[in-house]
Write a structure and sequence with these properties.
Structural class: mainly alpha
Number of strands: 0
Oligomer: single chain
Helix content: over 70%
Radius of gyration: 29 Å
Strand content: under 5%
Shape: elongated
Number of domains: 3
């Protein structure tokens, strides 16, 4: 199988669940948000195969809505514009023909004609300035606040504004939507110490940079990309130091406990219980390990005598550690 076929197969698997919901026609809003997330994931990771599939899937969804007769012309135009956006990625004639066939099919289904030049003319007459776009995005932000707290309502709202910008060919709105999404994932990465969020943030900034022709805007985006990558790198180094420190600390603790003069097993166990009660879970685990070593140095009758108690205390330690991680 060719490499491109493998990629396409992997992408198809990513869309499988959403496609099933779409075919069931039970919750199109959920499907639209899901396809939107796939589009942002694709742009953030610079995955062109995924991006093309997300655009085509959104186009299919818009065409389906156009067939439902509600806002027919609006959804029809959206579907065709999204299909045409895919042509930006396709250079081979066969691939381009497949997308162009979708536009023709949409025209046949709806008995409408896609006027690309007319759309371009109307878009050119729209307010496409930075000030006008700022007003639009401010409204998007305010509406998102009413939907709930956290970053998800904002991410969904800016994703919708990005799709609108692609359909209307509003380059300024597209750039600012990508930039706003990049800012959100940057903040998400800082708050959650999430390397993947930093990667997505940098990818979204790069996508905005690719579309930006303004010199000042390009410099701003380059600075944001650099900042996102620097913070990601610092986080990775800090996490590595933390893990290394923990491993060394635990190794020293084990060596000290297991090579120290032999104490009665019950003293080790008492130390472990005290550590467990005060929340020193690593120390409790080490004390249990030391107690087990003492037991194994004794005869078989010793092992049988204390094994139940040790196992019980060890289980308590591990459960407490899992709970502390979970919360």
């Amino acid at each position: 199988m060719a490499k491109s076929d493998i990629k396409l197969s992997a992408v198809a698997e990513e869309f499988r669940e959403l496609d099933l919901i779409f075919k069931s026609d039970c919750d199109l809003d959920v499907v639209e948000r899901g396809y939107g997330r796939k589009l942002i994931d694709a742009i953030g990771s610079q995955n062109e195969v995924l991006e093309c599939e997300a655009l085509k899937s959104l186009g299919d969804l818009y065409l389906h809505k156009a067939k439902m007769k509600r806002h027919k012309a609006e959804y029809f135009t959206g579907a065709c514009a999204l299909y045409n956006e895919v042509l930006r990625f396709y250079k081979i004639d066969d691939e381009r023909e497949i997308v162009q066939h979708r536009v023709k099919y949409a025209e046949k289904c709806t008995k409408l004609v896609y006027d690309e030049e007319g759309l371009k003319l109307r878009t050119d007459n729209l307010a496409n300035t930075t000030l006008a776009v700022s007003v639009v995005l401010h409204e998007v932000k305010e509406k998102a606040k009413n939907k709930g707290h956290g970053t998800m309502p904002l991410i969904e709202s800016y994703t919708k504004s990005l799709v609108t910008a692609i359909i209307e060919r509003n380059k300024c709105l597209e750039i600012e939507s990508l930039k706003s999404l990049g800012d959100l994932y940057l903040e998400k990465g800082r708050v959650g110490r999430d390397e993947a969020a930093f990667t997505k943030s940098a990818g979204l900034y790069r996508a905005a940079l690719d579309r930006c022709e303004d010199s000042d805007g390009r410099e701003t985006l380059k600075h944001r990309i650099k900042y996102a990558e620097e913070v990601k790198e610092k986080l990775a180094k800090a996490m590595k130091r933390l893990e290394t420190g923990r491993s060394q600390e635990q190794k020293v603790g084990i060596d000290n406990l297991l090579t120290s003069p032999v104490m009665p097993y019950n003293e080790h166990l008492q130390e472990g219980c005290r550590a467990l009660q005060t929340g020193h879970l690593d120390r409790a685990e080490l004390s249990c390990a030391a107690a087990l070593k003492v037991v194994h140095l004794q005869g078989e009758s010793w092992k049988l005598h204390v094994s139940r108690r040790l196992i019980s205390e060890s289980i308590n330690t591990f459960i407490s550690k899992d709970l502390s991680v979970a919360y």
